[in-house]
Amino acid sequence: MKNGWRGSQVVRHGSAKAAFVGSIPTLASKSKRLCVKVFPQQRPPTGIKTGTKLVPGVTKCEQSSARRLHRNDTVRFSSKLHPMLMKTRFRLIHRGERGGQFYCVDSETGKRWSLKTKDRDAAEQIVLAKNQALRQPALNLQIAKAYLAGTDNGVTTRTWQHAIESLTNTKLGANKERWERVVKDAALMPLLPLVIIETKGEALLRAMQAGTVSTNVFLRRLHNFCVDMNWLPWPLVPKRQWPAVEYKEKRAVTLEEHQRIIAAEVNPERKVFYQLCWQLGGSQGDIAHLKGEDVDWTNNTISYTRKKTRVPVIVHLGAETLNLLKDLPAEGPLFPYLSSVRAGDRATEFKQRCGQLGIKGVTLHSYRYSWAERAKIVGYPERFAQEALGHNSKAVHRAYAKRALMKLPSLEEYEQKAAAKAEVAA
Predict the structure, then answer these.
(1) Is residue 424 in some structural domain?
(2) Same domain, residue pair 13 and 94
(3) Angstrom distance (rounded) from CA 252 to CA 368
(4) In DSSP terms, which residues pair with 316 in a beta bridge?
(5) C-alpha 406: how far from its chain's center?
(6) Going by C-beta distance under 8 Å and a sequence separation of 6 or more, which residues neighbour residue 354?
(7) Stated pTM of the model
């Protein structure tokens, strides 16, 4: 006998197949036939049996075929296969009046949905896969990994640590430094060694619950990066299910607070640095790395390129700002010490100074909010303010200036001015 079988019965996909498909390890996918091994017995069979009960749906013709296989053989099934003989949950129907589409029906819920195909073989394979997924859930992941490994041989070993390293390598400058700090986030530590394809959405939610706003923001970016790279076949957390990002309220440094900070600062380099942040509204990293060559004394302008967006900025300088720059080096860094330390060190020094003065809720970045609000209050054109701060969108710029207090003129004054213009024109 072939394959070491003492005897075999061929059960076609259509009669008794519903009782056996998925329960016997040998399944010929092309011919859709099932081979059942026959064990020797003393008694001649009277039909295909499981214990002492006749399997429902087996015809007399099939019973006679079983007798012809071996007169002294009968078919026995292990008790472990008995649960597989239950009715399948998903079944296939064909709706000719709807373009010949095949549909899958859930026998438990009664729900029906289209399989988007008119090919019977393809439809049967989909329904068969759904039923098999219920019978052998432990093997589903292994089967999926076997298929995915055909196009990506790293799918079974790639972890979130590999993903975050690959994403970090695509960044430059300050952005790369941010991602290098993200790796050290304690909330992400349990997630990093997990294989991406084996990770469940609950693991991401736990990391966000244990972390901060920064954890939410960067984990979302990392997750989307994996989806875009096809390392995840589908999102682990749907877009609408991600926890909302809630930032702390940010505010600007007021003029009174700025004057107190300047009066209390004893370091001349830091004092001028804070004054330029107030006058130019640039980020602390951009201001700290200004050079003497960036100042155009002929046209009274200063130009630099934003480190974050690579956007060039040219700002005309007023008399007060020019007086500040005259005392700084004409060549090389304007702030030799501050340009050599980390951004965190500059921020810490500013925070300590504010703490000594009892000023709370502000950082060095608050100077950008101050500049945006001052520009809005005096009616500085929005397009100029947006360009000066290096903002690529109006929405971002308006978020910086949203807390500016505007003093609105009365409508009566505008009506009087309009009437006066009309009289002059007449």
Answers:
(1) no
(2) no
(3) 7
(4) 301
(5) 39
(6) 261, 360, 362
(7) 0.54
